[in-house]
Specification:
Blueprint (H helix, E strand, L loop, with lengths): L1 H49 L6 H29 L12 E2 H17 L4 E6 L4 E2 L3 H18 L5 E9 L2 E7 L34
Parallel strand pairs: 2-4
Antiparallel strand pairs: 1-3, 4-5
Helix pairs in contact: 1-2, 3-4
Length: 210
């Protein structure tokens, strides 16, 4: 009986390790694709400027705006990978509270060019101005990931609503898009590392943002 039980445990462990190895392989493939895309765009617009194809100030500004947007996208991807590698480490707590609504508005303004690339608009609704003890880079990481998912998996031309509120001494930040949402069968799985839900848009992703 003990031998049979150990055999079952071994089979389950091997199956789990195989599943994790497969998800890691998918992660490497997905993150490589996601990193190549903004790099290719940056190179394209740099070549446009270098070869003199952007002959007017307006054309140069248009190319530079795209380079800036793709650089931001690349920075967000690299930040995701770095933060994922540090997952579980205790960085301590900040001593000074921050104005959450002001911080969220700054994050949204920074993200607007990426949303515009999918013809999406972002509407910010500040219902309260809670002070919270959070690191600014921590809340930025959360909100940017939610906005990125909203743009990536929502329809072209949508309006994304970001709301800051306070209820019963709890600060609440919500990001709502106009997409189809996460399928019911995937709502537990997406919280696992490297796991991704099936999407209508077929957009690439790493599975580490959430």
């Amino acid at each position: 009986a003990l031998a049979a039980m150990m055999s079952v445990v071994s089979v389950v462990q091997i199956r789990r390790e195989t599943e994790i190895a497969g998800m890691r392989a998918d992660f490497v493939s997905s993150i490589s694709h996601e990193l190549r895309t903004p790099l290719a765009q940056i190179k394209l617009y740099l070549e446009t400027i270098r070869l003199g194809r952007a002959s007017t100030p307006e054309a140069r500004d248009w190319s530079l705006a795209h380079i800036d947007r793709e650089t931001t996208r690349l920075g967000n991807l690299v930040e995701n990978v770095l933060r994922f590698s540090r997952l579980g480490r205790n960085d301590g707590f900040p001593s000074d509270p921050i104005d959450l609504s002001s911080e969220v508005e700054k994050i949204v303004d920074e993200f607007r060019p990426l949303a515009a690339s999918r013809k999406s608009e972002i509407d910010v609704k500040v219902m309260a101005n809670p002070l919270v003890r959070l690191r600014p880079e921590g809340i930025r990481h959360v909100v940017v990931n939610l906005l990125d998912n909203a743009v990536k998996y929502g329809p072209v031309g949508q309006t994304i609503t970001v709301c800051v509120d306070e209820r019963e001494a709890n600060a609440i930040v919500s990001v709502a898009d106009q997409g189809s949402g996460v399928p019911a069968g995937d709502r537990e799985a997406i919280w696992r590392a490297f796991a991704r839900a099936k999407t209508e848009t077929g957009a690439a992703g790493s599975g580490i943002g959430l």
